[in-house]
Design brief:
Strand order of the largest sheet: 1-7-6-5
Distance between the termini: 26 Å
Order of helices and strands: EEEEHHEEEHE
Number of helices: 3
Helix content: 10-25%
Number of domains: 1
Number of strands: 8
CATH topology: NE0471 N-terminal domain-like
Shape: globular
Largest sheet: 4 strands, antiparallel
Strand content: 25-35%
Structural class: alpha+beta
Length: 117
Amino acid sequence: MTNDGKLLAPFETDEAGSSSTLKGECMSASAASESPVFAVDVALAPDASRVTLSDGETLRVPLRLFLRLRDATPAQRLRWRLIAGGIGIHWEDLDEDLSVDGLLRSAGAEVTVERAA
């Protein structure tokens, strides 16, 4: 799925710092159920991104946490796509990947969760 105009933690890395595909499933921040959650949409503001999850929750992620996103032009930030069925978000122009799992693990620190009403 690609985006034509509308953000979390990087994919797991090995000891050498090479990115690797996440294995397993992401769990909701509320973790009340054992259902995996995936990114379904991303919206970007000048200082933060909002990642809408398949369970209705939204993650607010400050862009200052991700230097490539923070320093990118608005046009570069708008060119993202969901990867691997929504387990992550990729910005080709920036060579940046964020995983839902990493964002959920960061919830409560810098990443905030907005629950569905």
